[in-house]
Write a structure and sequence with these properties.
This protein has nine helices and no strands. The longest helix is centred in the middle third of the chain and has 28 residues, at 121-148. The chain is 68% helix and 0% strand. It has helices at 2-9, 12-27, 46-57, 59-74, 95-113, 121-148, 152-159, 163-183, 189-197. It is mainly alpha-helical. The protein starts with a helix and ends in a 5-residue tail after the last helix.
Length: 202
């Protein structure tokens, strides 16, 4: 009975989706990164993958996908933008942002789940901005200030350079997520949860 409960809770399909999104976030790092105005933290496309994971996978699967990626990075695989990897990245200025990806993806997913079976674009954009931007900054900015020795206010001001790009990424993630959910209803987190509760998940 316990084994059956575990299978319902962790179906093979969910594990595959987690792996796919961990790989997607890694692939979005291939174009590299861009440092602007001397900021110690680079601009990358990988936060787009974090938003997509939250919008499509929901709370726990999105958090797990990001966790899998970061564990592989910590193990030394060069999966971050610019081919970065290893424990050293978690001691640098970007460390807080990386750790913030986990709760950021989870909060994005949680907000999308609250939208029910048919989340609209506006709800998706808000979820991506709150989780994929707000929560990530909440972790990232203080850690960046601590590591670099720059005052918190100045670090927050410097981080504002990311906002236009993050807004674009939130809109793109929302449009992609909505299109995917229309074509594949199980990509709506609330629908997926309903199927799991009724024994229809795979």
């Amino acid at each position: 009975m316990k084994d059956a409960g575990r299978q319902r809770r962790f179906p093979t399909g969910d594990l595959a989706r987690v792996a796919v999104f961990a790989a997607l976030i890694a692939v979005l790092g291939l174009p590299g990164s861009l440092n602007v105005f001397g900021n110690a933290v680079p601009i990358t496309l990988q936060t787009l993958g974090v938003m997509l994971a939250g919008a499509i996978l929901g709370t726990w699967r999105a958090a797990l996908a990001v966790t899998v990626l970061l564990v592989l990075v910590a193990a030394g695989l060069p999966l971050l933008s610019g081919g970065r990897g290893g424990l050293g990245v978690f001691a640098g200025p970007s460390a807080g942002y990386l750790i913030g990806w986990i709760p950021g993806a989870a909060v994005t997913g949680w907000l999308v789940e609250r939208a029910g079976r048919s989340p609209g674009i506006v709800h998706l954009v808000v979820a991506c901005l709150v989780g994929g931007v707000g929560v990530v900054y909440l972790f990232g900015v203080p850690v960046q200030a601590l590591v670099t020795g720059v005052p918190l206010g100045a670090t927050l001001w410097a981080a504002a350079v990311f906002l236009p790009g993050d807004l674009i990424k939130a809109v793109v993630a929302s449009v992609v997520a909505r299109g995917t959910q229309r074509a594949y209803p199980d990509a709506v987190p609330a629908v997926h949860h309903e199927r799991l509760r009724t024994g229809g998940g795979r």
